[in-house]
Recover the amino acids of this structure.
């Protein structure tokens, strides 16, 4: 990981969970999720293409992405990884 990638990932994490933000809860602690949509089997997105998700939405509940699997999680929450990545990029721009 480069210094620039690390700085970017730190900024993304500081946004808080992007899914919680959509639901009106700002500032929830975030872990970084590397989307796998469109990356090929067994691969993940670049460090510059990460989504901030709280532990609840990422890995530690029955509604978590890693518990449900991507397709079920996207249906359940009504949004895709790529749409959340787009929202993350827009939030970063707004925070500048």
């Amino acid at each position: 990981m480069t210094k620039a990638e690390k700085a970017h990932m730190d900024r993304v994490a500081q946004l808080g969970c992007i899914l919680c933000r959509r639901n009106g809860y700002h500032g929830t602690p975030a872990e970084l999720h590397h989307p796998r949509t469109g990356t090929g089997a067994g691969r993940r997105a670049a460090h510059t293409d990460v989504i901030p998700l709280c532990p609840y939405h990422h890995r530690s509940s029955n509604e978590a992405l890693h518990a449900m699997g991507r397709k079920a999680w996207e249906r359940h929450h009504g949004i895709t990884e790529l749409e959340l990545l787009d929202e993350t990029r827009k939030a970063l721009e707004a925070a500048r």
The longest strand covers residues 31-33.
